[in-house]
Structures
1.
Amino acid sequence: MATILLVEDNQNTADFMIRILESANHTVHHTTRGLEGARWARASRPDLVLMDIDLPDINGRSVVLSLRRQCSEQSLPIIAVTAHADEESVKLAKGFGCNAFLAKPFAPEDLLDLTEHFLKDHSEG
């Protein structure tokens, strides 16, 4: 079981993701705000972050860059989750520090496969 931080401002999307992740026995901490997510990640050290890029208070890019600036957060797997699925958005997300990209809408198995991949890598690293 892993602890996952979900930063997602759309409540329907968040509820969907939480159901999927909790069905795989993960603990999910959800916030709709980037600044709160960054504070929680620093204090609680989750095993994985699922980061929406378009947030109401600060964009996900800024949150990821902030987390990556801290030495202790370098190995934290961060997956960008956004409706911007074009090739340029994928390159940008990886360029500012995301390990992977999940385009909305997605199937439950896509979310689980991607999170399990990074949780496995993180636990071995």
2.
Amino acid sequence: MSYYTDRPVLVTGAGGFIGSHLCEALLAAGARVTAFVHYNSRTDWGLLETLPPETRAALKVIAGDIRDPFAVQRAVNGQSVVFHLAALIAIPFSYEAPASYVSTNIVGTLNVLRAAQEAGCHRVVHTSTSECYGTARYTPIDEGHPLQGQSPYSATKIGADKLAESFHLSFGLPVVTLRPFNTFGPRQSARAVIPTIISQALDQPVVKLGSPEPVRDFNYVADTVAGFLAAGEKDAAIGRVINCGRGEGITIGETARRILALMGSHKPVVFDETRVRPKDSEVFTLLCDNRLAAEVLDQRPTVAFDEGLRRTIAWIEGHRSAYKSGLYVR
């Protein structure tokens, strides 16, 4: 039997990219999954809508707002493990609406931690981001690397990480902070660079990109989800921050060339100044030191980068109407 068999589990941010894949994996592992999605009057469950009908039917879906402590408390009550993924994550929009990132990412995390403490949950897996490290002072980046808030988004995630740390140290809450590097795969929106490149290559005469020089560590979504599952199970992970990434770096420009080659496309890649971050906000190198994940979580990447790209290309080709490829998604 799986550790998750018949275990009540809550996923916040379940309607998002990683959240929807995590819900799917937890159901496959036998968990009783409650999916917390952002309320809207259309009863739209986000990317959970793309799951097969039998998978959706196995979920208990709660619509609410992570900023509302009462809604969060009701969702957390009775849960054994809480995977907290709900967040505002688009870096460019954080320059325009920083207050919304504070209320969602910091206050929302506080609501989850307090509710889990009161409910006596066995584990909280809090989602961080490699953006918390800022531009690397050394590579590969391990968990001891200094944190630097180079965008309002990353600053709020650092604040949320420190709240999670404080609830473990102050109250003994069994928290694990998983710090994914750049995750990609099917269902990801054009807010992220890989779907942006693919969708433009399919439907636009040119592929527009911002700075081609930054280096990223792209990890396929199934491998990131495996990290979450292990973080929810392994007792040795409690109280720790653990990176989750491939341990391989590639520039954005080379990523675009790799994608176009796999698609058999010869469309030109052109520089678009509107997609460039403010000078001192750009994070130039993110390269994961994933040794702690291998040691504590027994988790290692299994999907090769090109194979992950092929799967992502195939999904976007089959869902072209979901992508407004002519627009810059902030």
